[in-house]
Queue: 2 jobs
Job 1
Amino acid sequence: MPNDTSVEIRSLTRRFGSVAAVDDVSLDIRRGEFFSLLGPSGCGKTTLLRMIGGFELPSAGTIRINGTDMTRTPPYERPVNMVFQHYALFPHLTVEENVAFGLRYKKVAPAEQGRIVAGALALLQLAGFEKRRPHQLSGGQRQRVALARALALEPEVLLLDEPLGALDQKLRKEVQVELKHLQRSLGITFVFVTHDQEEALTMSDRIAVMNRGRVEQVAEAAGVFERPATEFVANFMGASNFFAARVTEASTESVALALAAGGVVRLPLAGAPYRAGEEVRFVVRPEKLNLRARDLSERGVPTVAVSVEDRVYQGASTVYVVRDERGGRFVVSEQNEKPFEEGSKFAVGDRAFLCWHARHAVMLPKAGEGA
Amino acid sequence: MKSGQAAKGGRTAYGLLLPTWLTLGLLFLLPLTVLLVISFGQRGTYGGLRPIGDLGHYLAAGAFLANYQRSLEPIYLQIYWRSLWMAVLTTALCLAISYPVAYYVAVSAPVRRRNLLLGLVVVPFWTSFLVRTYAWMFILRTEGLINHLLLGSGLISQPLELLYNNAAVMIGLVYGELPFMILPLYASLEKLDLSLLEASADLGAGRASTFRRVTVPMTMPGIVAGIILVFVPSLGQFIVSDLLGGAKTILAGNLIQNQFAVARNKPFGSAVAFELVVGVLLLLFAYAVYTRRRGEEVLL
């Protein structure tokens, strides 16, 4: 096992009755990285996190933390701390007492405890709130107390269960940045659970996208966003433009595809295992699609003829919903008023040509589910 | 305009409080006042009140305090003392037995079984307390259930004297008061946020530590309510000690009941009863002062 692995998860499964909440998951979370478990509710991300914390015992598989098998170790003996979804601050204790709660179990001398608590409170800008009770704090302050309480124990790994869910939109954005800064400066491994893809993208070094108890893809933020490995990931990351095509020609560098909607596309795919005659699907992100008045297929640009069905102005961008002749629905997001470039302005009902750059098409695995 | 509305709001608030004040006044303060007045009187020949000839002289001579004077004689002090420690012990035993039960029902048991279990706690209320106490006599007496079983199994050759002692009274008291401890404990345990227990474990606290530092403080309202609900009635109990205790286990409740029903000395009975009420109120008051001084919420 490489020495830089913080949490090593092997074939981890947790069944509730006949349902597998977490189904044969294997992951390596590296030391000092900001790792996110991303997925819709019920995908098993919280159960996975709770198993790392020791609150849930796996039905099968192992968890090693810093190289030590901790699959069945109780939470109070793990070098791991958790920031709970609703913070779980002790309402009968002051901020100070909350933060100091765990120190006695680490055999910290009382004088030292005061110093650590003051340090943790200062780190999270909570100085002056020592004597307050949790109910006298705002949501953001409570969230910081929960962080201070967990960080005061200097855990090897910090687990965060949707800790920003209770904050309002604006505060959330601020805290995302702060949290990322904090993680980077402390160098502690963060395992962060969220259902918000934007949040995961903003903060994570790497993201594991989960669905139905399984990990669909583990990659860096850009990888998950731009090169989704499965149709589920593509959909979940908001890239719902799926194109069906048949392989007409396959070489070691590229494949030529005949689009079901008409037209031929050549994609650069090094070493792609495709054969002529195969049915395939690929996806293009809405921002990578473009609407043009002229057909560009002559120039080798992938193009599909469409009609504009809906147009939604969203401030920085405009979203067009278009349909091809066979009824396929696509979403195009165009930036408004790009400098040095004339924005394409189409009205509902207009005929247009949907085009994109060949390298922005991401092939999906052949055994994908129906769209 | 505004102040008029405020005044009207104030009147409405008083109006809404009226039923409470009426209930308290008619059912608590009024009888208590009657009790107090009677306690200053003296027993008549046939059990009634002896008419007071010269009120001025009666008061000046201190005759109105005669009952209170008598109530402080050693023989009675012994009874109060026994009542007090038996009530304390009953409360402590009830708490020790009820906490695990309430914890199991509120936290550990499957949710769908919770109502059934709670129902079982309440079921005894469907039978008169007197009848249930008689049932204990049949269980404990020399020819009773326990002795029958022990003799039958050959564990003992002579029946055990289980009835008519302090232990029997204790069993009866604890048995009778148990639901009044379980229910408030259940109510506060049921509201316990289990993620707090997880947070405690996460921060390094073992089970015992979590119980002491989180579970107990979080359920303190239920504990206090249970203690009051059990302690106060056990202090005035007389049925249990009457039926299960012998002559040596007379409690304050028996003393009072005897004065009214047997000795027909209402003034003396009233004086002891009034002392008991004042004693309980003083204890509650002391508790309220104590919690307020510690800056905590007063749970009364």
Job 2
Amino acid sequence: MIELQNVSKSFRSAAGQTAALSDVSLSIEKGEVFGVIGRSGAGKSTLIRLINLLERPTSGRVLVEGVDVTALKPAELRAFRRRVGMIFQHFGLLSSQTVAANVAFPLKLEGRLSQAEIKARVAELLDRVGLADQAKKYPAQLSGGQKQRVGIARALATGPDILLCDEATSALDPETTRSILDLIADLNRELGLTVVLITHGMEVVRQVCDRVAVLDRGRLVEAGTTADVLLHPTAEATRQLVAEADLAEETAAPHDGRIVRLSYVGDAAHRPILAQVARDTGVDISILAGRVSRIKDTPYGQMTVALQGAGAEAAITGLRAAGVRVEEAA
Amino acid sequence: MEALFANIVWADILKATNETLIMMGVSLVLTVLLGLPIGVLLYLTGKGRLLAQPVAHAVLSAVVNLLRSVPFVILLIVMIPVTVALVGTSLGVQGAIPPLVVGSAPFFARLVETALREVDRGVIEASQAMGATTGQTVFRTLLPEAMPGILAAVTVTAVALVSYTAMAGVVGAGGLGDLAIRFGYQRFQTDVMVVTVALMLVLVQLLQIIGDRLVAHFSRR
């Protein structure tokens, strides 16, 4: 659906050329929620703006459904942008216009629908994002979460295939963030919308992303399914982000015996694996730290345990056989 | 009362007030028509803006600064040949309007540029992301969003024009300023001076009140 091929972007500044992105390649599948995570200054904002060409790459190609968007003529680019919705951290709403007029804005730009059709479409969109009763208000009268819902309704107005979310929940409190992410996930399922979101919050990735890419100082350091990247980060930048988000377990308390880290995803989370292995091998298992939770819709568990007794080796083999990933704790 | 306002001819005052209102009103409309596009161009051609054009911006900016740096009294005189060419005379209300517009349009253009700069970049970016042309971004996003600022600029310009019309009195433009200079100052008729100044004060107050109301009406923040 979306493919970045060896994309680089540098900006001219007082100090000379500054590279925002260096040789980034990634591909985003139709209908998935794809996250890009990184610290501020990692190049996330630049990356998402390359997709609808708010930024032009210095080199490399940006393909959307096989079409090189950097080669589009101005009119073609405008038509293309109507098929790509975008929402922003600070919402980007017209403060001088009502909620309804903001949602109608892209439809008026397009100039395809009649006044009556626009009115009907706006009502339908506001209803979908739960703001049917706020149509006549001005953005300044709304809460942050409501403003972002207006932003989403506006982004969907022209019926896009792709939704770009530029730190869409970064200005919102945790509860509002969850409700906005739920809405985005619902829209992804209902409309088959391909969603690209950038964030510096691991929680956002964990809640909605199918796959995730990690940017560090303009370079793509890791990419894969959300579960893989979060549970088994390989790049240092990813490890730090995961650790800060408290998705990794606390440092284990000192304990005798053999200390190992276990992680499991999916069905394994529902089975009483630890109890079974303990029974079969006669090993005492003490849980030192851990968490059982969900990554998007997939349950997962991650824990640090101490194995005591002669059967420790057999226990590890048994755990592995049950689909648990076992690593020696350093 | 008779003794207090011995020199006042109310018919003259009325005529002068009318002339001031016409000079100010017509000049204001023309100033907005001329200054608004210049202000928009100043903004659009600026660094990092939609139509960033460093050379065009520098030239436009220099012309605006040049016109703004000429004192209005001098501009009135320097412009006489141009004024005659444009409206056939350099005298009266008609003759005052071209220098008034040339004097205030660059000032108004700068105020418009400043008002446009206050518009949130995020809104402009959103407009582009939705596939707006530059024209659509200007007319549907920039100008509506900057409307309170632009109305405030119109108010400030209208008030400045009132004092410019008084100066235009020096070259025989008519109006309250003309009356104040010829009778109030040159003939020591203090009562004429007091009445004309009082009328201009009322005019300025009214303009400011109307302007503030309009700004409040269009502000949604």
